[in-house]
Design a protein that fits this description.
Layout: H1 10-17, H2 52-65, H3 72-80, H4 106-119, H5 123-135, H6 153-165, E1 174-175, E2 178-179, H7 180-187, H8 215-225, H9 258-275, E3 280-282, E4 290-292, H10 293-305, H11 309-328, H12 336-348, H13 361-366, H14 400-426
Antiparallel strand pairs: 1-2, 3-4
Length: 449
């Protein structure tokens, strides 16, 4: 069964959240296999069976955005997981054995392609991955978690993002005249749905074709619908809140037009954030609803890509205040995919990743994998970085007022120091200034282990 680290693995997520939706059996529930050993080069210490490629790809993508050059072993592990036909499985324990095509994973393939594209220098692997995407597109234009099964909203959205990352127009990748954009439209709830569900994406249609809003599916599919990929670097800004679908009594109730897709989905996501206290909720049958950290992180990415960073601010701040325990205190220590999600959020929201809720996300994720080849040449002070206690400050970064206050104090202190030095200098011989005071050593964080 999938671990919490792999909330992006849509097969099981869809089964839990969409109720009647079919999903492939990923594990024998009567006899769980022994946890796989964690290989060298992999980020995180948890069992990689269901999320190895997923978490490695997110970690490499997020660290690349932080100007961290990863170890060759980390990149080599990811490229070594690729199958001969270009796809990636969730995890490939024996790379000498041929892949089972039925177990290859569109989600893992999508994020692996994006990671290698960001890193650069892996054109052959990326090209093979894109060919795998084209080969395994369903007849309706969608992509499934595993080939040969019905498509779903998450997998289709993630795959569209992978195509965009490589410069491939998803509109040109089609099967039977239907592209990934067309498939996303088929998963999106339109004017026929209740008002508070309009614009959402479903995981899969239920029996009979009915669609049910799925917050996690929406958080990931919206990024692709908005023309985005990871890392999100969009700086376009729409000052107004996202517009809900314009529905009128007796009006058209067909598919959501592609031009309105991302805006309508963003409006749904903002409604969910507002209703749940700046975050999404994870609801599973028979269980008490809990905060959905991964869905909230992808919501921030999607809203920023859609041009609504202002509406993403509250969710980013909530993650800064509450996300450390989720990312750093799992049963196996740091959850690499969770830490990467937070780092991607900080980058997209243009927040300081070294002081995200009082924690240094770059150090947290770097420490979860092999020692990198190099770190950024200039890092901020480690004051406020990751602490052993993991206590967060409750904010997402330095406030403007705090910075101004510190600046005033420095200015006043500097003025007093200059005044004192001038008085002291007046008592000394001309041309022989006072011995300069050694400058304080800057703790720039480069002594990380």
């Amino acid at each position: 069964m999938l671990t919490a680290a792999r909330l992006g693995a849509t097969a099981l997520t869809g089964l839990l959240l969409a109720g009647a939706a079919a999903a492939p059996a990923l594990a024998d529930t009567t006899a769980s296999p022994a946890p796989a050993a964690v290989p060298a080069g992999l980020y995180g210490k948890g069992d990689p069976t269901y999320d190895g490629v997923w978490r490695q790809s997110l970690a490499l993508t997020a660290l690349a955005g932080a100007k961290v050059v990863p170890a060759d072993s980390a990149v080599g592990w990811l490229t070594g997981q690729q199958c001969a036909d270009g796809g990636w499985p969730s995890y490939r324990a024996d790379t000498a054995a041929a892949c089972d095509a039925k177990t290859e994973d569109s989600n893992a393939t999508a994020v692996a392609i994006q990671a290698l594209t960001v890193l650069g220098g892996h054109q052959d692997a990326v090209a093979k991955g894109v060919q795998w995407i084209k080969t395994n597109q369903n007849a309706d234009g969608s992509w499934a978690y595993n080939p040969g099964t019905p498509g779903d909203g998450n997998s289709t959205g993630l795959t569209v993002s992978a195509l965009l990352a490589t410069g491939t127009d998803p509109a040109t990748v089609s099967r039977n005249g239907r592209s990934g954009y067309d498939a996303l439209g088929a998963f999106q709830l339109g004017c026929a749905a209740p008002a508070d569900q309009r614009g959402a994406f479903a995981f899969q249609p239920a029996a009979g074709g009915a669609l049910a809003a799925n917050a996690l599916a929406t958080s990931q599919a919206t990024l692709g619908a908005a023309g985005g990929k990871i890392p999100v670097t969009n700086t376009n800004r729409v000052d107004a809140a996202p517009k809900p679908l314009a529905c009128t009594a007796g009006g058209a109730v067909g598919a959501v037009p592609r031009a309105d897709s991302a805006e309508a989905a963003s409006a749904y996501l903002v409604g969910q954030l507002t209703a749940n206290g700046r975050h999404l909720m994870l609801t599973t049958p028979g269980a008490t609803p809990t905060p959905d950290f991964a869905g909230t992180a992808w919501t921030v990415l999607s809203l920023v890509q859609s041009g609504h960073p202002q509406q993403a601010t509250g969710a980013a701040d909530w993650l800064a205040a509450n996300g450390y325990a989720w990312a750093a205190k799992g049963k196996s220590g740091t959850d690499a995919s969770a830490a990467a999600d937070l780092l991607l959020v900080a980058q997209a929201a243009q927040l300081d990743p070294h002081r995200f809720g009082g924690n240094d996300l770059v150090q947290l994720l770097t420490d979860a994998g092999p020692a990198p080849k190099s770190l950024p040449s200039a890092s901020p002070s480690t004051e406020g970085s990751v602490k052993a206690s993991g206590k967060a400050s409750g904010g997402s970064g330095l406030s403007t007022q705090w910075v101004i206050g510190v600046g005033l104090l420095i200015g006043v202190g500097g003025g007093l120091l200059i005044s004192l030095n001038r008085k002291r200098g007046n008592r000394q011989q001309p041309g022989k200034g006072a011995t300069p005071t050694p400058s304080a050593k800057s703790d720039n964080g480069d002594d990380r282990k």
